[in-house]
Design goal:
With about 400 residues, the protein is mostly beta strands. It contains 2 helices and 29 strands. Strands 2, 4, 5, 7, 12, 13, 14 and 16 form an 8-stranded antiparallel sheet that branches. This is LamG-like jellyroll fold domain-containing protein. Keywords: Signal. It comes from Saltatorellus ferox.
């Protein structure tokens, strides 16, 4: 069984704090529809009309994965007709001001086109006033995916069903949209699969999209044509609407669609630090990721170490204190946790990187190792994770560390 040396163990207990933090991608706004609340951005959101925040969704829960709440926004059923209004424009600060940066969004949608009175789908979100700047997405007809993004330089990009894919009808489906300003394109993922990549100038506009994107009205959620008249009320369900700074990757989209993670997992309270680590024998620094929910009550978190030497033993370490100690106990790497450090070395927890140079461990947040025993992770606590692993340099046995990740649990 691989173990840390006595010197390394002593360093784990006594080293001083010296952090080197770098922010990870952050979810900016998230509505799970357990209430009208924006759980992340805190934007004041109210009901207009009588949409149904259903505790017993007509269509069932959108997914059964991390953070599922059994709540969805239902419009046009059970007598409910209306929408939510999020004060991204009239509130105390201008929210959803993406400027010239890339951004992403995700949501679950059910459109019951077979019973819609006007055969039109619902507008998922809209903070664009007339021909001003902002973003808007809707499903105008069955199987269509319509997205509009306008900037303050006069660029108008309207994706009126130009995406070459068909959205499912009468079932929950997951959508991730990415506005990649660097590549000047929009990418769409349906149920975790990349289904379309379209240039930002797809509508033939002669004005390139070089300006800023920000709202020019409060954002309407789950509405079409104001959604208050009989013709506009839609039979639809909406769940887990979220907006992110930066770009959601293909693996992010797949994880969201599978229910392995929810929007709270993407940067909300997850911070990488001590990065990059010291290169190992592969020539590349090892890295660690924490994937799952930052809600402590969900007890859904997996640690993954990657870019390791093949067939190397290792294990994860954890502490509520960050640190930075170079080459502790003769290791080649940097120890990035301090104070009371716990080690995941229980039955089945010591890992081997195998042929892929990676290993993963689903951790039980109710049984987090510390020097004095197992303790539960509580809401409001921050825990720091790192991986230690064996290595070989010039035929000599050595060890190294990955970088580290800090998770602030809610």
């Amino acid at each position: 069984m691989p173990t840390l040396s006595t010197a390394v163990t002593a360093s784990l207990i006594s080293c001083a704090v010296a952090t080197s933090a770098a922010s990870a991608q952050t979810v900016l706004h998230y509505w799970d529809f357990s209430s009208t609340a924006d759980l992340v951005g805190g934007v004041n959101t109210t009901m207009v009309g009588a949409p149904d925040l259903s505790l017993s969704p007509l269509y069932g829960e959108a997914y059964a994965g991390s953070g599922a709440t059994l709540n969805t926004l239902i419009n046009g059923v059970n007598g409910g007709s209306g929408y939510l209004l999020a004060e991204v424009f009239s509130g105390p600060t201008l929210e959803m001001d993406f400027g010239m940066n890339s951004f992403s969004f995700s949501y679950w949608l059910w459109d019951d086109f077979a019973t819609d009175g006007d055969a039109r789908g619902g507008r998922v979100f809209d903070n664009l006033a007339g021909t001003s700047t902002g973003i808007q997405i809707a499903t105008t007809l069955a199987n269509e995916w319509n997205f509009r993004v306008d900037d303050d330089n006069g660029a108008v990009n309207i994706f009126n069903n130009v995406m070459p894919f068909v959205t499912p009808v009468d079932q929950w489906y997951h959508v991730v949209g990415v506005v990649d300003r660097g590549a000047s394109e929009v990418r769409a993922y349906v149920n975790g699969t990349l289904t379309a990549t379209v240039p930002l100038d797809n509508n033939g506009t002669t004005t390139p999209m070089t300006g800023s994107v920000f709202p020019t009205q409060d954002m309407q959620i789950g509405v079409i044509n104001d959604g208050l008249n009989a013709g506009g009320a839609q039979t639809q369900g909406l769940d887990d609407l979220a907006f992110y700074d930066g770009i959601l990757s293909a693996s992010d989209a797949a994880a969201l669609a599978s229910g392995a993670v929810n929007p709270l997992s993407f940067g909300a309270g997850i911070t990488r630090y001590c990065s990059p680590g010291v290169p190992n024998s592969t020539g590349t620094p090892g890295s660690i990721d924490a994937i799952g929910s930052v809600l402590a009550a969900d007890n859904n978190m997996t640690l993954t170490a990657a870019s390791l030497p093949t067939s190397a033993f290792g294990f994860f370490i954890v502490s509520q204190t960050q640190g930075m100690v170079n080459q502790p106990g003769g290791s080649l790497g940097v120890l990035c946790v301090a104070g009371g450090v716990g080690r995941y070395v229980g039955a089945g927890q010591i890992q081997n990187s195998g042929a892929t140079g990676t290993f993963s461990l689903p951790i039980d947040l109710t049984m987090t190792p510390t020097p004095t025993g197992l303790v539960p992770v509580m809401s409001g606590e921050t825990w720091n994770f790192q991986a230690w692993h064996r290595d070989s340099v010039g035929g000599s046995a050595v060890s190294n560390f990955t970088d580290a990740v800090s998770v602030s649990f809610q």
